[in-house]
Design brief:
The complex is a heterodimer of chains A (about 160) and B (about 120). Chain A has 2 helices and 7 strands, in the order βαββαββββ. In chain A, strand 2 and strand 3 form a beta hairpin. Chain B has 6 helices and no strands. Chain B has a single domain, classed as ACP-like (Non-ribosomal Peptide Synthetase Peptidyl Carrier Protein, Chain A), CATH 1.10.1200.10. The chains are: A alpha+beta (about 160), B mainly alpha (about 120).
C-alpha cells in the first residue's frame, strides 16, 4: 500500500533531488498527493550572501522562487500527485515558467523559511503548482503558478 | 450552452484568463454562456498570443492562418501543451497530447478545435 504522506529529512531529500549542496534549498519536507510542505534554514554561511548584499545579507527573491520550485520538483519525483503515472525522472525535470511571483518580506540569516505548494494540475509533460513561503506567521513570498516540465522515469 | 456557467464559474474563467486580452475573455464568456461558436477563433488566437514571446506577438496580429507555430511564432512543443491545456479549460473540451503532433500552423489549430466542438 502506498503511504498517503511521506516525511523526509535533509539526507533523504538530498538522495532524491538532482539539486545538491550548495544549491539545494529544501531541508525537510512532508509530501502528499494534494500538497507538500518544506523548510529551509538560512544559516548565514551561504556563499551568495557575501554579495547579496554588501554588508547586508538578504536571501535573494529569485532563490525563494527556486526553493519553492525545488519543493515542486520533489513532489514530481515522488510521483504521488494525481495524474502521475509514476515518478518523474530527476534528469528530465526542470522549470518551464512562473506567473506572478511576489516577495513580501526580507529574509536574513537565522530565519527558517516554510514553504507550501499545491498542484493545480499535473499532466505529463507538465506540472503546475501554486506556492507560498512564510517565516513564522509572516508571509514572505508567493507564486501564483509555477510550471515544471518533466518526463517519467523509464519503466 | 453551458448550463453550469454560474457566476462563480465566470469568475474562475476570468481569473484563469487574466493575462489574455479583454476581447479574449469576453469571447470565452460568450462561448460558455451562450454557446456562441463564432467566439471560438478569438479565444484560440487570444490564448496563443498569451503564451507567445511578447516580442513576437505583433507577428500573430499581422500574419494569417498559414503561419507556422514553431518557425514563425516560436512556440515549442511544451508551450503547445500549456496552450492546449488552457484552451481545454476555457472551452471545456479535451485533447489528447498525441493529437497535437499534426498541428503545424495557426490555421491547423483553429480548424482542429472548431471541428472538435462542432
Amino acid at each position: 500500500m502506498t503511504p498517503s504522506e511521506v516525511k523526509l529529512d535533509a539526507a533523504q531529500i538530498a538522495r532524491i533531488m538532482p539539486m545538491q549542496d550548495p544549491f539545494l534549498f529544501v531541508q525537510s519536507a512532508v509530501v502528499s498527493a494534494q500538497e507538500a510542505t518544506g523548510t529551509y534554514h538560512i544559516s548565514g554561511k551561504e556563499d551568495f550572501l557575501r554579495g547579496h548584499f554588501k554588508d547586508n545579507p538578504i536571501m535573494p527573491g529569485t532563490l525563494m522562487l527556486e526553493a519553492i520550485g525545488q519543493l515542486c520538483v520533489l513532489h514530481l519525483l515522488l510521483g504521488m500527485g494525481e495524474g502521475m503515472a509514476r515518478p518523474a525522472d530527476p534528469k528530465r525535470t526542470g522549470l518551464l515558467s512562473s506567473e506572478s511571483m511576489r516577495c513580501i518580506n526580507f529574509c536574513k540569516p537565522g530565519d527558517t523559511l516554510s514553504m507550501r505548494i499545491k498542484p493545480l494540475r499535473i499532466r505529463h509533460p507538465l506540472g503546475s503548482y501554486m506556492g507560498h513561503m512564510t517565516r513564522g506567521q509572516d508571509k514572505v513570498a508567493y507564486v501564483e503558478e509555477l510550471t515544471l516540465m518533466f518526463d517519467y522515469l523509464p519503466e | 450552452m453551458d448550463t453550469a456557467f454560474t457566476p462563480e464559474a465566470e469568475a474562475e474563467l476570468r481569473e484563469a484568463l487574466k493575462r489574455c486580452s479583454p476581447e479574449t475573455i469576453e469571447a470565452a464568456i460568450r462561448f460558455r454562456k451562450d454557446g456562441d461558436k463564432a467566439a471560438v477563433p478569438t479565444v484560440i488566437m487570444g490564448i496563443i498570443e498569451r503564451f507567445m514571446d511578447p516580442e513576437l506577438r505583433p507577428k500573430l496580429a499581422s500574419g494569417g492562418d498559414a503561419m507556422s507555430l514553431t518557425e514563425d511564432l516560436g512556440i515549442d512543443s511544451l508551450t503547445m501543451v500549456e496552450m492546449v491545456m488552457m484552451i481545454e479549460e476555457t472551452l471545456k473540451m479535451s485533447v489528447d497530447n498525441n493529437e497535437l503532433g499534426g498541428l503545424k500552423t495557426v490555421g491547423d489549430v483553429k480548424k482542429f478545435l472548431e471541428t472538435k466542438i462542432a
